[in-house]
Design goal:
Largest sheet: 6 strands, mixed
Number of domains: 2
Structural class: alpha+beta
Oligomer: single chain
Number of strands: 16
Order of helices and strands: EEEEHEEEHEEEEHEHHHEEHHHHHEEH
Shape: elongated
Radius of gyration: 25 Å
Number of helices: 12
């Protein structure tokens, strides 16, 4: 059993020989370490952040920012050392040929040929990078690697990677992003916000936090998921099936569009950074409150909610406010810190809704009498 890559009219083809068919979208073969390294280094096997650990922005010595894949150098070094010493025991590499309608795969007499489509690593990124690190020393690995080849859609590939990472070190944000459990409606709603609302471009999908100096992200994906779950529960909004989840998702997409237009700090990184020491207005944690207000409007003002969103500007966001100090904000010697616990999250949700309601009721009555 072996695999090869051939050039045909400047197009790279991925070929696996003596493959065993596992099911309609799965095959297995083997590949020696040297060839596997060659395919990775040449770009035949690619890294797709959408079905992997994602990407992050790093600042180089020349102060230029660059988007790079997320991986652990420590893990790569450990694997590479064993490879160099000839002590590495090969284990299964899982590849995916993205099922997006553009791929062409043929299996004839045990030979799998990818006529078109991307061959992407689904499980084994660190091992492939370790093979790249060790260079020609890859030939010290005598035993071949088992290689599983799948043909999954992006959603199914994400779900597979989510399964592979259970028990592994991966951020909660990334785990939630990869989780396509159709019964976890808060996750489906959050993904709709991410993909379809103006807020989506400001959502962190890799890390569990947003750094103080981040000029792009204002909230993590896991915060949105948790905020939706907690806020719907607080407002006693139950979801009976995917149709209702879709209705709520559509509402939150529109709500987040208006939220972004109302809260300038979300759009303006300079203004956001100016006020971050003293104001809660654009803290990751505050989105529990913003989502809760969305749930409140969905429940109480579903037909005319848009006119009330600007009332958020009348909320008290001062970190030294009696509303928040000691409850969700703790004052240190030089700066404030956020108290992130189930009690503080519940307090923020309840207080945000109550304070917003106080502002909204008089405004609502005034507008109705005008």
């Amino acid at each position: 059993m072996f695999m090869e890559v051939i050039m045909d009219n400047n197009a790279i083809k991925f070929i696996a020989h003596n493959v065993l068919t596992l099911n309609d979208d799965g095959y297995i073969s083997v590949m020696n370490a040297e060839k596997l390294r060659e395919y990775w280094v040449s770009g035949v096997i690619k890294y797709n952040p959408e079905i992997q650990r994602g990407e992050k922005v790093v600042k180089r010595r020349n102060k230029k920012e660059e988007t790079v894949p997320v991986f652990s150098r420590t893990n790569i070094n450990k694997i590479a050392e064993r490879m160099k010493a000839g002590k590495y025991k090969p284990d299964t590499i899982i590849l995916n040929i993205m099922n997006d309608g553009a791929e062409k795969i043929a299996v004839v007499d045990g030979t799998l040929t990818v006529e078109s489509g991307n061959v992407e690593v689904l499980d084994g990124q660190h091992r492939l990078r370790a093979l790249e690190r060790v260079g020609e020393a890859a030939e010290n690995i005598v035993e071949p690697f088992p290689v599983m080849i799948l043909n999954l859609s992006k959603e199914k590939a994400q779900d597979a990677f989510y399964q592979f990472t259970q028990g592994s070190k991966i951020s909660k944000t990334r785990a939630e992003y990869l989780n396509n459990d159709q019964g976890k409606y808060e996750n489906l709603i959050a993904k709709e916000i991410l993909s379809s609302s103006d807020l989506g471009k400001y959502v962190e999908v890799v890390k569990n936090n947003v750094s103080k100096n981040d000029k792009k992200a204002v909230v993590t994906f896991s915060t949105i998921v948790a905020a939706i779950q907690s806020s719907l529960r607080y407002m006693q909004i139950s979801i009976d099936g995917k149709n209702e989840a879709k209705e709520i998702a559509n509402f939150f997409v529109r709500y987040c569009d208006v939220l972004v237009s109302v809260i300038e700090e979300i759009r303006n990184p300079e203004k956001r950074l100016e006020g971050r020491d003293d104001s809660l207005i654009c803290e990751n944690f505050t989105f529990y409150g913003y989502v809760a207000v969305g749930a409140y409007l969905y429940q109480n003002h579903r037909n005319d909610w848009e006119r009330f969103v600007s009332n958020l500007l009348d909320m008290d966001y001062r970190k030294d406010s009696p509303l928040w100090e000691s409850k969700i904000v703790r004052k240190g010697k030089e700066k404030y810190s956020i108290v992130n616990s189930s009690d503080s999250r519940n307090y923020l949700i309840e207080t945000f809704v109550n304070e917003f309601n106080k502002i909204t009721k008089p405004n609502s009555q005034n507008k109705e009498s005008a």
